[in-house]
Amino acid sequence: MAERSFAKEVEHLRLGDGDVFKGEAILAITKGLLQAGVSYVGGYQGSPISHLMDVLSDAQDILGELGVNFQSSANESTAAAMLSASVMYPLRGAVAWKSTVGTNVASDALANLASGGVTGGTLVIIGEDYGEGSSIMQERTHAFAMKSQIWLVDPRPDHGQIVDLIEKSFELSEASNTPVMLEVRVRTCHMHGSFIAKDNVKPPFSIDDALNNPKRDLGRIVLPPAAYEHEQEKIHHRLPAAIDFIRSNRLNEFFGPETGKVGIMLQGGMYNNVIRALQYLGLSDAYGNTQIPLYVMNVTYPVIDSEMEEFAKGKDAILMVEEGQPEYLEQALNTVLRRSGASATIYGKNVLPMGGDYSVEAIMHGLEAFLEETDPHIMGNRPPRPDATPVLAQPAVKKLKSVVPARPPGLCTGCPERPIFAAMKMIDQELGEHHVSADIGCHLFSILPPFNIGNTTMGFGLGGASASAFSRSTGKRSIAVMGDGGFWHNGLTSGIGNAVYNKHDGVFLIVDNFYSSATGGQDILSSRAHNKSRKTNNPIEKAVRGVGATWVREVDRTYDVGKMKRVLHEALTTKAEGPKIIIASSECMLNKQRRVRPIEAQAVKAGKRVVKQRFGVDEDVCTGDHACIRLSGCPSLSVKQLDDPLRDDPVAAIDNSCVGCGNCGEVSEAAVLCPSFYRADIINNPTWWDRFKAKAAMGLICSLQNRRQRRRIVVEAA
Amino acid sequence: MRDETVKLRLASAGDATERPISIAVVAMGGQGGGVLTGWIVTLAENAGWVAQSTSVPGVAQRTGATIYYVEIMRPQDGKKPVLAQMPTPSDVDVVIASEFIEAGRSILRGIVTPERTTLIASSHRSFAIGEKSAPGEGIADSGAVTEAVGVTALNSIIFDMNALAAANGSVISSAMFGALAASGVLPFAVADYHAVIEGNGKGVAASIKTFDAAFEQARGSGEATPPQKAAPTTQIAPAAKRRVSPRAEALVARTETGFPPQVATIARVGLAKVIDFQDLAYGAEYLDQLEAVHQLDISLGGAEQDYALSVNAAKYIANAMAYDDVVRVADLKTRASRHSRIGEEIGIRPDQLFETTEYMHPRLEEVIGLAPIWFGRWLQNRPGLYGWLDRRISKGRRVRTYSPGWFLMLYLVAGMRSWRRASLRHREETAHRDAWLTLASELACSNYALGVEVLQCQRLIKGYSDTHARGISKFAKVTEEIKSIAHRDDAAEWARRLRETAVREAEGDELDGLIQTIRSFA
Questions:
Q1: Considering just the CA atoms, what is the radius of gyration of chain B in Å?
Q2: Which of A128, A500, B5, B270 is the most exposed place for a label (fewest CB within 10 A)?
Q3: pLDDT digits (tens, 9 = 90+) for A402-455
């Protein structure tokens, strides 16, 4: 069960010929796959392609009708290996993941796939997580495409264009026996737009057809001598075939006048922003009627030499608009034009930024510099361009820089991982700081305020592995953190198995929140949810014992900060040999709330007795030290200014987004902070016994209170 | 190059002005920005416009700052416009901020500019972790944002959309949508906006109600006044209106007659606090000490200093006397007003009941703090026994406040205020207070400002158990250092820096660093 329901989106997948699809591009892509008659789909969730996985896993019945086999793969490597189904059989298959991280994981399988080549069309949907809002290292997938000779499609950001290119990519793949990557950037994936749908296509050749008539061909297997032949095939057959297909099907587009003094070549993905930049310079209208010839490369690998030469013919200069580095396309263009002896000067990274988002602003400045040098007249007497520098130079705005605080991402309200890190911080205060190798997932927020825990992170599921150099400890032990997502992705073998085998004397903390939460709450092997299309409820504890771990402790309620502390303390101090493995389990609160809220609401409506909890702060007991916040960072735990002339500092306050997870109380108890917190148990539909008890108790209490109140000397301050 | 081109007599090469309407929604992850964006898209599409929205949620969807961007434009004889995927500085028509500091962030992005931008922002604050976790006062100055809005936005609609939404039983997105409609930047009728919300299915009635309320407020207020940082006001209602027990009237009179107004107002509040903490006699003690300081103040010509010494004494002596001990906590937790106050805080309905649980962790230290001095001392001199007892006592206790047993226990502890003055803790607090006041008075004689600074050092002492201990040691460090630099004529300045550093410091050694610096040139 994912973080949100995709029931509505699933209906979009049923749209037929002529219907208008409206929605996110990543969902348009999903629909495009079904229209292209795909037989099987796999992948691993992660921004920006999670929604593709989510909507497909909610669409089991549609997939069933079409005979499509959809798998939530164990990791990207699994997904890539899945494509081997298309090596011998005319099956169209697609997989998707976040890149470059996912491509890194998948590259072994991809290289083998690309070497042997494919019969059925194989497509890898690449969610290029580059630029603003990215959560990973800034690299290009382009390099992988080139090194393994996988064609790279980079569609112009338009739903119709993208969906059309999916179908074309499959054909290209089949025509050239080569896998194809379809690269979509973050903003494009989350872009709302529309296109005219077609009917879904049931694959003519089914998976059963393949299973029942297996085929083999030693020539397709990567072993000498075939491996050498593969390379020759790539050069002499597959590449030319691809070039022919791309040319004859006009996958790359030309816009604007036939001829011109200068021209612009660009990755398809850059098109919208280039048009806007041209518009700012007065060289295009809002509908894309440009006055400068454009060569839009919807396929960025392979480059089509002949198209480049034709485009450059008769032009003084060419600008290559290519996001990211190194500038592979600019280099390719250089080679092509020098070989052909064309005279056009080549501009690119010399006027455009080497790295980072190619925002409209960045492109506009690059274009202006390019045209200044090559064709200044075309810009006429330069209409005013948008420019914020005077505004940003205002003193009032300058001052703002020092005022606006950073707002880093953090753990959600009531997150079960918060008490774990609070406990770790307390342990640090007792035993001193430890080397903590972090992992990828929500728990990585521990590296940010207020916890500031974690020294390195080396990739998904590699928290354990990245501590392996510290396997012999004489004094302090290393702590490796790993999420359940990373654990099943590869951590069980790369982290735990490795640690057991190498007798790693360190602590391995596995954070089990019942889902792959950071990517949207997808189910995984150890999920507690009952999932009718997958086998869940496979305990992590069994798995680690299975690979030989002996010192294993489970904390089945992470909010028990005291227990969490004790277990950590034991793990860091015990004489026991080998890895000390702690499995800390509590359900992701975001998903829990989504699951439980409606049920509770139902029960309350039905008049059942339901107890809900939330926390509060007695403001006159709180002294405004905020030590509690430094051990929490919960969005619902904030501060407020009191209207009391004797108070200097704001006091802690809890807003009504509190879900009563218990962290505040447990922490202030375990850290011996202060008695300001109270937990309120709100009883809906109380029974007569509840009412009687309350009445009796409050009767006594009120009489006591009145007795004291009568004696109290009152001086009203305000 | 440029010169030549400038001389050219050419019309601008093309129409660069005809651009889509661009809208940026700046928000915190998971707080309605996505919903609002979806509504705006539907609004435009229903009118036959082409709408494109983009966003970069990524990890920001976990409470981080993020931005959604929408462009809308009419198709031209069937031809779709090409829409950009990210806002361009100084080319955005509407910026909608779901939180006030986020409005500030959008200004820093350069997307709020005087030529074209209408800024719609909710004036409420959702504090960033840095603001919350600062040991003292760390809240950003909203005033700076207000200033910046003044010089950057073409128009602005600013009011607390969060509160308005809550009041109407909906969420902020409905309120922001209403404000957008009221801004009139988009060429759509209110009915069209309603249609979008109605098409949405869930919670329609509440959303419409919120939308309309926001629409009205935006139309009415136009530029509503955004919040200044809530500064604690010292404005107090005229004495007559305030209830005073007959037995306390004499003391209250002393505050009114004995001090100049600026001191009297604080003295009154201080008196109220100490009497509430202990009793009338304690109140008298407070006034005696305050009067002593005030006499000194007068003799030092405090009138020119606006009686800073007396004002700070009035404030910090009260805080020092009303220290945080078990008795006070028990008293506050058992008051009649508390049960109803919590009821309001958690929005309890008549058909609901509630109980509360307190998370307490008393240590032997707190317990013997209550004990008679001789016994406390005796026990402190027996570490073995002390430790043994502490292990028995010091553990987390979940106190069910409104169950008869626990309540009675708390009630009895609260009743121990009569022993309080004979207790070890009281002896320690009094000793601390006297030393502190003496030091302040001494230093004030030679350096008035320095005396004031020393009084303000009381601010360092707050919290319970470890936090309290840390406060005491910070106080000791700072005052020791102040003594050693008292002779310098810039001593007050350094004292202020010492204190402020100490307040800011949670973990780490910022304070020690500063002390080293001071010693290096002292």
A1: 31
A2: B5
A3: 999 998 888 999 999 999 999 999 999 999 999 999 999 999 999 998 999 999
Distance CA B518, CA B520 (A): 5
Domain for residue A600, yes or no?
A: no
Q: What is the tally of structural domains in chain B? A: 2
A397 occurs within a structural domain = no
pLDDT level of residue A2 (50, 70, 90 thresholds)? low
Q: Tell me whether residues A672 and B248 touch, CB distance under 8 A.
A: no
* Partner residue facing B335 (CB), from A401, A637, A705: A705
Report the chain B residue with the minimal C-alpha distance to residue A409: B64
In this structure, the answer to whether residues A129 and A261 fall within a common structural domain is no
In a domain, residue B355? The reply is: no
Domain assignment of residue B321, yes or no: no
CATH number (domain holding residue A181): 3.40.50.970
Last residue of a domain, one of B164, B198, B219: B219
Interface of A with B in 126-185 (CB under 8 A): 129, 131-135, 157-158
Q: Packing angle between helix B510-521 and helix B465-485, nearest 10 degrees?
A: 10
Q: List, in sequence order, every residue forming a beta bridge with A639; answer none if it has no partner.
A: A652
In this structure, the answer to whether residues A705 and A582 fall within a common structural domain is no
Q: Which of B69, B349, B359 to mutate to test the interface with A (most CBs of A within 10 A)?
A: B359
Q: Do A523 and A629 fall into the same domain?
A: no
A131 and A68 within one domain: yes
Cα-based distances in Å from A389 to A355, A395, B112: 22, 12, 12
Calpha distance A479→A471 (Å, rounded): 10
Asked which of A248, A272, A293 is the last residue of a domain, the reply is A248
Q: Are residues A270 and A239 in the same domain?
A: no
Other beta carbons within 10 Å of A98: 27
Chain A residues within 8 A of B317 when measuring between CB atoms: none
User: What would the two tokens of residue A57 be?
Assistant: 């896993």
Q: Which of B180, B202, B219 is the last residue of a domain?
A: B219
Question: Is there a domain that residue B184 lies in?
Answer: yes
Q: What DSSP element (H or E) covers A507?
A: strand A507-512
Contact at 8 Å (CB) between A476 and A510? Answer: no
Domain that holds residue A678: 609-710
For testing the chain A interface, which of B86, B235, B279, B410 should be mutated: the one with the most A CBs within 10 Å? B86
Interface test with B, best of A404, A451, A590 (most B CBs within 10 A): A404
Of B12, B56, B467, the CB nearest to A383: B12
Please indicate, yes or no, if residue A596 is contained in any of the structural domains: no
Domain range for residue B474?
A: 427-522
Residues A650 and A510 in one domain: no
Q: What is the dihedral of CA A555, A561, A566, A572, to 10 degrees?
A: 80
Segment B463-479, tens digit of pLDDT? 888 889 889 999 999 99
Length of chain A: 718
Could you read off the pLDDT of B55-65 as tens digits, one per residue? 887 666 677 88
Distance in Å from the first CA to the final CA of chain A: 54
Which of A:650-679 have CB within 8 Å of B?
Answer: 650, 656, 664-666, 668-675, 677-679
- Same domain membership, residue A628 and residue A577: no
**Residue A396 forms part of a structural domain:** no
Asked whether residue B8 carries a pLDDT value surpassing 50, the answer given is no
Which residues of chain A make contact with B4, given a CB cutoff of 8 A?
Answer: 376
The DSSP bridge partners found for residue A437 are A456, A480
Gap from B133 CA to chain A (nearest CA, Å): 5
Tokens, residue B357? 């649980």
Query: Token digits for A176?
Result: 């050239």
Note whether residue B374 is domain-resident: no
CB contact under 8 A, A380 and B8: yes
Contacts 24+ apart (CB under 8 A), A694-697: A694/B353, A694/B355, A694/B402, A696/B404, A697/B402, A697/B403, A697/B404, A697/B407
**What's the confidence (pLDDT) of residue B15?**
46
